[in-house]
User: What shape does this take?
Amino acid sequence: MTVQVELPCPKCKSTKMKFERAEIRETDIITCAACGHNLGTMASIREKMNKAYQKLKQPSAARKLQ
Assistant: This one.
């Protein structure tokens, strides 16, 4: 059974990802279903997304102080 996850692929911009389990695990390697690009493990993707979110939050907080 293949489960799909909605994540943007940096290579082809498709949002269809696949992995081979019914549940997502931190060690699962996420692959783009459209072009086959390897995005890394679920843990590394979450870490990248958290860093990007923190960067988005910081400028808005700085603007409020001014």
